[in-house]
Amino acid sequence: MSTMQASLPMYDFPEVREATEKWWHGIAKHMKQQGIDNVPTHLIDDVPLRQLWTSEHLLLSQCCGFDVMHSYKEHLSVLMISDWDAKGCQTGQYCSVVVVHEGSDYVSLEDLKGCTAVINDPESHSGMNTLFSSIQPFSEAGKFFKAIHVSEAHANSLKFIQDKRADVAAIDCVTFALLKRYRPSAL
């Protein structure tokens, strides 16, 4: 019997890790009660997501819906959809927050033309697709931003904005709510 893996990586901030572990223990308990064998007792958090989501040993994880339907559709199946208690995340709804530096003069999306954007990942719905679809009506021949950086995480995108290495980013509403609560200086 191979060792199965479980991970809940999407909002795995140190500030909420204890709650995430408790959430996992509840999920694992119910899986075992339903007769599922080889349920991991602990979450893993040290495996890169691409490796994790394609592993034959993965039992359960979190992944954005866009990724499930595109890049990982051959590897992942949807078992449940989380219902987060965060502003903008009403049941069945999705939201990202478009952010700029607090000292900037930008007041509309159109004002951002020719600026520098930062996205968390080229395959991110919350950090890339949302931003690009928002500015699409203002782009010309598919061009809007002068440059685009990739930060690898929403919190990193905010650091790009704070350091003025980028002018705009889209941050998913759950990450935004967690940062507002636990790391307000990040906003």
Number of helices: 6
Mean pLDDT: 91
Number of strands: 6
Q: List unreliable stretches of 5+ residues.
A: none
**Largest sheet descriptor:** 2 strands, parallel
- How far apart the termini lie comes to 46 Å
Strand order, main sheet: write it out.
Answer: 1-2
SSE order in H/E notation?
EHHEHEEHEHEH
β-sheet strand percentage: 5-15%
Helix-and-strand structural type: alpha/beta
Shape: elongated
Helix proportion: 25-40%
Please tell me how large the radius of gyration is.
Answer: 18 Å
Write the layout of secondary structure elements.
Layout: E1 5-6, H1 17-33, H2 49-53, E2 58-60, H3 65-69, E3 96-100, E4 116-119, H4 125-135, E5 147-150, H5 154-162, E6 168-172, H6 173-182
Parallel strand pairs: 1-2, 4-5
Antiparallel strand pairs: 3-6
Task: Characterise this structure.
The structure is a single chain. This protein is an alpha/beta fold and 187 residues long. Helices cover 30% and strands 12% of the residues. It has 6 helices and 6 strands. The protein starts with a strand and ends in a 5-residue tail after the last helix.
